[in-house]
Specification:
It is a single chain. It is built from two helices and 23 strands. By secondary structure, it is mainly beta. It has two domains: 92 residues, Carboxypeptidase-like, regulatory domain (Immunoglobulin-like), CATH 2.60.40.1120; 210 residues. The chain starts with a helix and ends with a strand. It is globular, with a radius of gyration of 21 Å.
């Protein structure tokens, strides 16, 4: 009986918390970090840095199929009743990023900043979920080469209302990506690796992310900088396998509500143009929408005129 008890506990844990699956490159067999696992219904989750994710029919009982995708690979659909422990993705030649060689010997430069907009009003903040990606547009002087040195991300740490002095502990993993300007909308994703970073309750409300080593140059037509929540992490910064939505019972039946993650993202009414876009990444078309009146008539931020995320940049503007 004593020997059987630990085995029983392990079986119960696996049923509730889910079986672990690993996503790998079909050719070279290395794990694919932070791959997207979509449920095809507007919900999903991410693999961690080792390509591992957890799934169980107990936790996601109404999901029959999942769709796994990652940049540079062909999307793969699998029936959840036939999930192998190792899931291999085939490289997609059409998606492989071009190799961009950027000359670093550009001479002297001046450092310029586009300040971020920070405030501590709980009711004027975006509540991040893993299903959404937010992108902000930044123009460029078309005659001067410009490299992004760092990105300023305004965040709010308070656990509840403005009057609260208590901070809720959290450690959240984000992904940053860059897109070309396609007629005023985020277009083709720019070449380069994903930038994975973490924000905790101990960071400053004007969080500065140094990306100088990634050599991100702004195209003449401008650039969209995006951030996306991957989920909470443990103390060492490893992505946790957290359920990404809750099931709430209502009169109309079970409603799925996406889990929100801290920190909150302060939105602002101090920017004249609507330069903020959002999209739900677990929908197959992943269409970008400008965050304005056409986005939603019922959104409280839009109704109050807070339609832009107050992201900022530090840039190296070269004289030549």
């Amino acid at each position: 009986m004593k020997k059987a008890l630990p085995i029983l506990i392990l079986l119960i844990y696996q049923c509730v918390c889910g079986q672990a699956y690993t996503i790998k490159d079909a050719n070279q067999k290395f794990p694919i970090s932070y791959a997207t696992i979509s449920f095809g219904n507007g919900n999903g989750l991410f693999a961690d840095e080792d390509g591992v994710f957890e799934f169980s029919k107990k936790r996601y009982r109404d999901i029959d199929s999942i769709y796994i995708s990652a940049l540079g690979y062909k999307e793969k659909g699998i029936n959840t009743s036939e999930l192998p422990k190792i899931i291999e993705l085939t490289p997609d030649v059409s998606q492989l990023q071009e190799v961009v060689v950027k000359a670093e010997n550009l001479g002297r430069y001046k450092t310029r900043k586009k300040g971020s907009r920070v405030h501590d009003d709980y009711f004027k903040c975006w509540l991040p979920t893993v299903e959404s990606e937010i992108a902000v547009f930044f123009p460029r002087d078309p005659l001067k080469s410009t490299k992004i040195a760092s990105v300023f991300l305004p965040v709010m740490m308070e656990s509840s209302r403005k009057s609260s002095s208590r901070k809720q502990a959290f450690s959240t993993l984000f992904k940053m990506q860059f897109y070309e300007n396609n007629n005023g909308f985020p277009g083709k994703r720019m070449a380069g690796d994903d930038i994975i970073f973490r924000i905790t309750n101990n960071d400053k409300t004007n969080f500065e992310l140094d990306i100088l080593e990634h050599k991100v140059f702004i195209p003449k037509s401008g650039i969209f900088v995006s951030i996306q929540v991957l989920g909470y992490t443990d103390k060492k910064g490893k992505l946790q396998h957290t359920k990404k939505y809750h099931e709430v019972e209502t009169r109309k039946g079970i409603v799925k509500v996406s889990t929100t993650f801290r920190p909150l993202l302060p939105f602002t009414d101090k920017i004249e143009d609507n330069i903020t876009f959002t999209r739900r990444i677990f929908f197959k078309n992943r269409t970008w929408q400008r965050f304005d009146e056409k986005y939603s008539e019922n959104n409280m931020l839009i109704q109050k005129g807070f339609m832009n995320y107050g992201m900022g940049l530090k840039m190296h503007v070269y004289e030549k």
